[in-house]
Every structure is written in C-alpha cells, then in structure tokens.
Design brief:
The chain is α/β, with parallel strands linked by helices. The protein has two domains: about 5-240, no CATH class; about 255-430, no CATH class. It is about 30% helix and about 25% strand. The chain contains eleven helices and 35 strands. A ten-stranded mixed beta sheet has the order 12-13-14-17-20-23-26-29-32-35, with helices on one face. Strands 1, 2, 3, 4, 5, 6, 7, 10 and 11 form a nine-stranded mixed beta sheet that branches. Strand 13 and strand 14 form a beta hairpin. The termini are far apart.
Length: about 450
C-alpha cells in the first residue's frame, strides 16, 4: 500500500489513545469528578491495574498503577481523532499541573493507530518493523526528554543483531526475520501492540512532564509521521540496506568464531574460555559442538568483549566472570559472577554483580550484589545484597536483603529483610531461622 497523503492529511488520519500516570492531590473519587468535569467525559473508577474495561472516545477510566507506589493513578483514554486527542492532552496536563504532580516513575504513553476509513483496516499490518527501527529518529526524542534515555521502562529500540550464524552473499537477500530487534514490552516502542493494529510509544514522562506540553505535542506528531512512513512504504530502500550491511559487517567475526574454538580465540582474544575450569584446548574442542550455540547467543545478544567464560558440563550452563555487559540486550539461563550488567536478565544466578537499569525475571541474587534502578519479578534476594530504587513484584519474590527507596509491590519478606524509604504495598512476612550468607 502506498497512500499519497501530505503531512496534514497524515496527522488528521491518526487516532490516539493516552495513558497518563500521575499523583493527585485528592482521593480517587474526587479526582475522577474533577477530571470528568474538565474533560467533559465519563470516567469509570477501576480497582485494579489493566482492568478488563476498554475505554472509548467518550468513556475513559482511572485505575491504580503500582509501579510508582500505591498512590500513583493512571488515566486511560479511548482512541481519539487527532484534533480531539491534542485537546485532551492539553487539558489533562493543565489539570495535573493545578491539581497534582508527577515524578520519575510517571509516564505518558501514546497509543497510535490510523483511521481505517482513510487508510484501510489492515494498514499497520503491512508495517516492516525492521524498517521502522532503522529509520526512527530516537535522538530527537531524547533531545526533548534527555532524562528518559536509558530508562528501564522505555529502553532504546536501536538494538539490531543478526539472528543467523552465516553471512549473506547479497545484502538484498536479507529479510526482517534474519534479525533480532526489541519485541518485549518495556522499550520506547511496544511492538507487541501491532497485533491489535496500533503501536504504543512509551518514551515520554518523568518528573514534571506536565510542564512540557509543547514538547509532547511535537513528539506526538513525530511518532505519527514516522509510523505512517514505515507502514505506507514497507520496502527496504538503499539506505536501509546500507545500514544492514554495516550491522552484518560488525558481527562478521561472530559467525567465524562459531566455527571452531581456534577461530573463537582468534576473534575474541580478550575473552578467556574454560570447560569445567579446565583451560586445555583439546578438552574445549571436544565440547565445542555442544557449547557453540549457547555461546553464539551470549556473544550476539550481550556484546561480550572481555571476561572469562566457563562451561559447566554437569549443569550444561555457561558461567561468566569479570565481564562488562552494560551494552546487553538479553541474557538468559547463565551464572553471572562479578559482572557489570544492564539489559534483560532471565533465569540467572547472580553473584557479586553490579546491575543497573535492568529487567530481572525469575533469578537468584547472591553475594553482595548491588542492583540499581531495576524492575524485578519473582526473584530471590540474599541477605547480603542491596537494591536501590527498584520496583519489585511477583508472588514468588523472596526478599532477604536490604532495599533502599523504590517500591516493593508484592512478594515475601523475612525477619532479615531491611527497608529504608521503600514504599511497601503488599507483602507476606515469613519466618526463617537460617541466615545463609552465600
């Protein structure tokens, strides 16, 4: 599809829904009464986040959002025509400025789609996500909202790595499925929403975002125009292919290192490698066919350039020590020892690590590890560890360590748990006589 629309026509064809996160000076009932009067919209009060009620253009909802503590609320609008959406956003920002406040954990999300009568029912389904990621001007967003760069809830989408272990003889043979790019929720753009025929833009927010009306309106237009461009013309152009060529070139050594341990040593001379803590090349070469797929994923998605890797043949796991993984996309099912990490961490055991601005899921944290600015679900935290300004949730959470600031949304705590300035919402206190200091 290739619609010939000018800038004004594109903007007027857009439909926008908002999610405003903020703190009110009033209780929820009075907040809704005042907002309803200001916006001239019916607003329902929901008792839990992500309720089943679907807002419309005339009927919004307010619900709790525990990511910023028990008092953080979220106003969710229905999908609105472009001009109406601008008016609603201006009015809500004005109301927050006069009747409430925002903080670092507050966001404003923009859900953008296009009028099916003007663009067709399946307009966004044609969008080439890879093309969108390549062309999206993220620097412009961070220019207007610099403090949002690197935020765990709205990470950069500019992370593209080749999925396969081979090179292409002709760059024009490359297809979007040959690459890995952000597909999880907590990125500046949530591509999971495409299945519902819209995209969620999560970049914006922060302390006093209600004072940035002009910037927010400017970025609304920016998002609409860039989204329309990628959906209207999904074919990769010469500039896109040149960008992909550079990406493939950057990872060319990785494909070669996959072939054999001798090639790995050639292309990763600063990364030590062991099998069962044995450095004998013959032993490592014997295990190489078993190890290399795990290693490829680690090197590819974690941008590993230093440190020591040990393959534990008993557990069939990789162990990484003394590595700088602060440019990490995702790391799964490994042991991390004395590493610096930033990114998505799943199903890992973590020892004496320094982790910042990460998402951590179903992991165990030991040995004086320090976690800052992270979102953590269903994790175990040892008594020797410290969490600073984190958001902790999940019924399987077991918190034994010290937590400073942040929000403990739900989970279990013990008599060894220490909180300092942390907002606790829901928790179960369990008794333990054992102080295990791993």
């Amino acid at each position: 599809m290739n619609l010939n629309l000018n800038k004004s026509d594109i903007l007027l064809s857009a439909r926008i829904g908002f999610e405003f996160e903020f703190y009110s000076n009033y209780d929820v009932s009075k907040t809704v009464t005042l907002l309803s009067r200001e916006l001239n919209k019916k607003i329902s009060i929901e008792t839990k986040a992500h309720s089943n009620f679907k807002p419309t253009a005339d009927h919004f909802k307010v619900e709790p959002d525990m990511s910023g503590g028990a008092k953080l609320i979220e106003l969710v609008t229905g999908s609105l025509p472009y001009q109406d959406a601008r008016i609603i956003m201006i009015k809500v920002l004005k109301w927050i400025k006069e009747n409430g406040k925002t903080g670092d954990r507050c966001g404003i999300h923009m859900n953008i789609s296009f009028d099916p009568d003007k663009c067709g029912d399946s307009f966004l389904s044609h969008m080439n996500v890879l093309k969108f990621v390549l062309e999206f001007d993220e620097d412009f967003v961070y220019k207007l909202f610099p403090k949002r760069e690197g935020l765990v809830y709205a990470k950069s989408i500019k992370f593209i790595v080749p999925r396969e272990k081979y090179q292409f003889s002709d760059i024009k043979d490359v297809q979007p499925h040959n690459f890995i790019f952000p597909s999880e929720k907590y990125y500046g753009v949530n591509f999971q929403k495409l299945i519902k025929n819209y995209l969620e833009f999560r970049y914006l927010g922060g302390d006093k975002y209600e004072n940035k009306t002009t910037s927010l309106l400017e970025l609304l237009d920016h998002f609409i125009l860039q989204l329309f461009s990628a959906a209207n013309d999904p074919i990769l152009n010469d500039e896109n292919y040149e960008q992909l060529r550079k990406i493939l070139k950057k990872y060319e050594h990785l494909s070669k290192a996959y072939l054999s341990f001798s090639e790995f040593k050639r292309y990763y001379p600063t990364v030590g490698f062991l099998v069962d803590l044995d450095s004998d090349d013959r032993r490592i070469t014997t295990f190489w066919p078993v190890i290399r797929d795990k290693l490829f994923n680690l090197l590819n998605e974690c941008n590993l350039k230093d440190g020591i890797i040990n393959y534990n043949s008993d557990s069939n796991k990789l162990q990484i020590k003394d590595a700088n993984l602060q440019d990490c996309f995702k790391i799964e099912n490994v042991e991390l020892i004395e590493c610096k990490v930033r990114g998505i961490i799943r199903d890992c055991d973590i020892f004496r690590c320094d982790i910042q601005n990460a998402e951590i899921y179903n992991s165990n944290i030991f040995n004086e590890s320090r976690i800052s600015g992270a979102k953590m679900e269903n994790c175990y935290v040892n008594v020797t560890c410290t969490l600073d300004d984190c958001y902790v949730y999940g019924k399987k959470t077991l918190m034994n360590g010290k937590m400073t600031g942040g929000v403990f949304r739900e989970g279990r705590i013990t008599n060894m748990t220490k909180f300092d300035g942390t907002e606790r919402v829901e928790y179960e206190k369990i008794k333990t006589r054992i102080d295990v200091r791993h």
